[in-house]
Amino acid sequence: MMLTPQQLDDLYTDLCYRMARAGESAATPILARLTLLLMHEVDDAEQIRKAMDEALREFPAVVTLESPH
Predict the structure, then answer these.
(1) Which residues of the chain have pLDDT under 70?
(2) How far apart are CA 69 and CA 67, in angstroms?
(3) Separation between Cα atoms, residue 37 and residue 39, nearest integer Å
């Protein structure tokens, strides 16, 4: 079942409010943990890689690192 655009917007807004309540210093750990939990739920490496590519599309690399992939 796909989420509707309104459901996505509602979830995004809810996440933003929850992270704001937790404080700016908690944002990175919260997003990291949420990402790992959702990766576990998706359970499809190719789909996860596509989502990572999309999420990073507009953020150019600022550091050169050797990637395992």
Answers:
(1) none
(2) 5
(3) 5
